[in-house]
Amino acid sequence: MADILYTYKNSVYANITNKCNCSCTFCIRSLKDGVGSADTLWHEKNPSKEEIIDAIRSYDFTGFDELVFCGYGEPTCELDTLISAARIAKGEKFLKTRLNTNGLGNEENGHNIVPELAEVIDSVSISLNAPDASKYQEVTRPRYENGFDKMVDFALKCKEQIKDVKWSIVDVLPSEDIDKCKKLSEETGIELRIRHYT
Ligand code: SF4
């Protein structure tokens, strides 16, 4: 049975689902089964909302002040569970909450999910992955058409309602692509975090 909660570096992470609506060429899931304290993040069966809430309630968060929703899948593919779990993390465990997402949650759920997220999520990190629509399509291979535009629209909507919103890219991108991502960040006012590839 895969871990629902695991630690990596200085944070606790919630691995709420293995569902995903992308098939990224660089996805860590194709390289190894686990991350941090988790030997495997592959669920034999995706955990229920109740199992995830139980896991949060019974976890000793001593020394940690944040729960990050990020695992081997896209958290917004289980929106109801994500919202309920984040509400417990904030209301009962007094944690900050962060969502790491591919930014396609509005498309996945068929409506603008940002107002719901804004009630229980303190910060959002959105994978930008590429500087434009054609490169985005190539590397993330989303289930939806116009994925790049939809991801950008989600980021802008998040910025309206959530205080801490960032885009992230990995430093393996060619320098001209990184420059274009920086330009998009400046134009939109959404901070860009450039992560080192490990
Ligand atoms: S969105 Fe995340 S989990 Fe889904 S394929 Fe891409 S890297 Fe993997």
Structure, described:
This protein is α/β, with parallel strands linked by helices. The chain has a single domain (5-195), classed as Aldolase class I (TIM Barrel, Alpha-Beta Barrel), CATH 3.20.20. Helices cover 36% and strands 18% of the residues. It has a seven-stranded mixed β-sheet with strand order 1-2-3-4-5-6-7. Helix 1 (49-58) packs parallel to helix 2 (79-91) and helix 2 packs parallel to helix 4. It is globular, with a radius of gyration of 16 Å. The two termini are 26 Å apart. The relative contact order is 0.14. It binds iron/sulfur cluster. Residues 20, 22-24, 27, 29, 73-74, 102, 140 line the site of iron/sulfur cluster.
Number of helices: 7
Look at the structure and give the mean pLDDT. Answer: 95
End-to-end distance: 26 Å
CATH level-4 homologous superfamily: Aldolase class I
User: Largest sheet, described in full?
Assistant: 7 strands, mixed
Write the layout of secondary structure elements.
Blueprint: E1 5-8, E2 11-14, H1 49-58, E3 66-69, H2 79-91, E4 96-101, H3 105-109, H4 114-120, E5 123-127, H5 133-140, H6 147-161, E6 164-170, H7 175-188, E7 191-195
Parallel strand pairs: 2-3, 3-4, 4-5, 5-6, 6-7
Antiparallel strand pairs: 1-2
Helix pairs in contact: 1-2, 2-4
The structure holds iron/sulfur cluster.
The site of iron/sulfur cluster (SF4) has 10 residues, from loops.
